[in-house]
Amino acid sequence: MNGVIIIDKRAGWTSHDVVNRMRRILDQRSVGHLGTLDPLATGVLPLVAGNLTRLAQFYTSSEKTYEGLIRFGFATSTYDADGDPTGESRSAAPTLDQVQQLAAEFIGVIQQTPPPFSAKKIHGVPAYKLARQNRELELKPVQVEIKEFVITSVEADRARFCARVASGTYMRSVAHELGKKLGCGGHLESLRRTAAGEFDLRQAHTLEEIEEWCAMREESAERQGSGTIEAEFIESFFIHPRQLLPQFPSVTADESTIARIRNGRPVNLPELSRARHVKVFAGQADLVAIATRVAGSLFHAKIVFAADKDELQNKRAVATPGK
Question: Is 254 known to be catalytic?
Answer without folding.
Answer: no
